[in-house]
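Board notes (copied after class):
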Amino acid sequence: MKDNAQADVVIIGAGTAGLTAAIYVQRAGKASLVLEGNAYGGQIINTPDIENYPGIAHISGFDFATGLYNQAQELGAKIEFESVLEIVPDGKGKIVKTREREIHAGAVILATGVVRRELGLPNEKKLAGKGVSYCATCDGAFYRKKEVAVNGGGNTALEDALFLTRFCSRVYLIHRRDAFRADAAEVEKLKAKDNVELVLNATIDELKEGEDGKLSGVEVVDKFTGEKRIIPAAGLFVAIGQVPSNQAFAGIVDLDEAGYIVAGEDTRTSAEGIFAAGDCRTKSVRQLATAAGDGAVAGLAACQYVEA
């Protein structure tokens, strides 16, 4: 059991928003403590090549996240790997409870990010790690010279498909519509690949299991004709959206119907002294640059709250 601690600002989540907030808190002369239940970096750590962050033409998600992590630490931020269970009011401040201890905070920044959405098919969990994956950059190399499928129509799905074209014999991109939500530039890049097949207006109906207990293919159904087709695939990479991880805080801050923390561009939530930054909050654009912007705004706002 760790001793109880205190910090001017406790930041929950060590993704782009959380680490940026820590940098701004430290530069403002306050003490920050970042709590992360998993690994630092958030979703961006799985992106092989970032090309849309201002001032940096190309960088991997891992290198970008590691740079933020190191910068925050060098400025004196404490980053510890603990899962937060609850936040309770404590006068003007807050008590942040983890499994190990209670931490007294002058202000709290929620930067919990999101997790990838599952398909919800009967044997999906059984085949997870046996052909079904939610991270192409993590697992793609296991399918070298094999046929794989990607499910989704946003930037993540197209990035995954582009990454897989480098070493997979064929990549099927399955999308429920005939148009993509992804950036037009990413769509054109993918269309230029000769080992990609677009399977549009289709949804995955069933995951096929081989005799070896691993994924052998996916059955898709055409939305309009109802026609079914089995696509041979040793791997399926699911990229159909994201889910916020905010239920632990539902009793202290307002959430919208989708589970995102209700907070505007000032990052202020319904609870005084609690701020929300990054993909976990209500917003129309969820990009790396907006996560960093949220982190800066929340970090400075939290410091102002502590000083008031």
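Comment from the instructor: The two ends are 33 Å apart (CA to CA). The mean pLDDT is 94.
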